[in-house]
Amino acid sequence: MADLETDDEKVESIKRWWKANGVSVVAGVVLGLGAVFGWRAWVGYQDGVRQRASIAFEQLLASMPAAESEQVASRASALQDEYGSTPYAMLADLTAAKAHVEAGNLSAAGAALRSAIADAPDPGLKRLAALRLARVLIAEGDLEQASSVIAEHDDGGAFGGDFATLRGDIALSQGRIDDARNDYRRALELDAGNRRLIDLKLQDLPPEGTS
Domain range for residue 175? Predict the structure, then answer.
């Protein structure tokens, strides 16, 4: 009998606890489930955005051979407006810049590359865009601004050799032959791309001691 009374007391205790706390428990469960499903919905939405951005970028690339640079830039701008939160916005800037360079519109290419630097999702892509911007500025003859871009973005890492090559090009354009030679050698030490071209640039320099 004592055991039954004890069980009855336990049941009553549980009833009292549930009466006092049941609503909050149910609310907590509901909120917890809502957070889980809400997070899954958000992840699903983001995945969908990235997939649509990827398709838009592929369409942009496919249009390049036939489209004028202005058309490529317009499509790139539309992609940026709609998918600016994805890495494809920066890649669209790079694509537009390439089209402008091929069309000889270096000013527009520079603007697209500055946008790419601002939109870059990671430091490596930012340095890639900066490297291309420095090349465009050198082609435009704006050596001072090119030097500034290089100084700001060159960290001596993966693109260190390519930045050193551009430093050599700037030094050569300014008649600083010894500096150009040192920069080209530094570029080779850092395993810059297009080593054959750098070798040719070195060979074309006046012999040491004659500059």
Answer: 154-211
